[in-house]
């Protein structure tokens, strides 16, 4: 008779081979529940942690590959890297088809023998040149000072904000144009200007009721890990 263990999420008894151990904390859950848990956290753009209450242990990336698709495993690696880099050190490739995440230090180290000028650096992934100071494709015909005083820079700043909003899944208030980021709580947003809308699709709330059919909440945002 094979030895079985109980998963503390679904409470089903599973063979040991179908159980997943969370790294250093050693909490165990079945592969099916862990797959769903990790996928939900990745969709919420956060690093997957142990589902056990009050446990902050991160899920090991390598061991997750046994139940995650290669694409999701790559996303998980990206999330871990993103969380490990301080906000002030994060650098994203300015070319939309790449958008690779790098730390400022590793970019400077990687390009110390191949930079165009003080600001012109080469992306570590797509190898195209961008300006690490202006955060745009490299402006070959002018200095950073001149570029930042130009109308082109003003327009590119607007595009940068829009690109970042898409990457971070921010929602823009249709009334005051303020960007909103959901940290926790339901998807019913009350902007600082008083306008109410759905965080998922942006539809307006009228008379304290949604005008769309989007879910009101996701458990992850209601009960924070």
From TrEMBL:
The pathway is: Protein modification; protein ubiquitination
Question: What molecular function does GO assign, one term?
Answer: ubiquitin protein ligase activity
Which PROSITE patterns does this one have?
A: TRIAD (PS51873), ZF_RING_1 (PS00518), ZF_RING_2 (PS50089)
Q: Which cofactor does it need?
A: Zn(2+)
What top-tier enzyme class does this entry carry? Answer: transferase
InterPro entries from the entry? E3_UB_ligase_RBR (IPR031127), IBR_dom (IPR002867), TRIAD_supradom (IPR044066), Znf_RING (IPR001841), Znf_RING/FYVE/PHD (IPR013083), Znf_RING_CS (IPR017907)
Which segments constitute the RING-type domain? 3-218, 7-51, 173-216
Protein name as catalogued: RBR-type E3 ubiquitin transferase
Organism of this sequence: Prunus avium
Q: Which gene encodes it?
A: LOC110755270
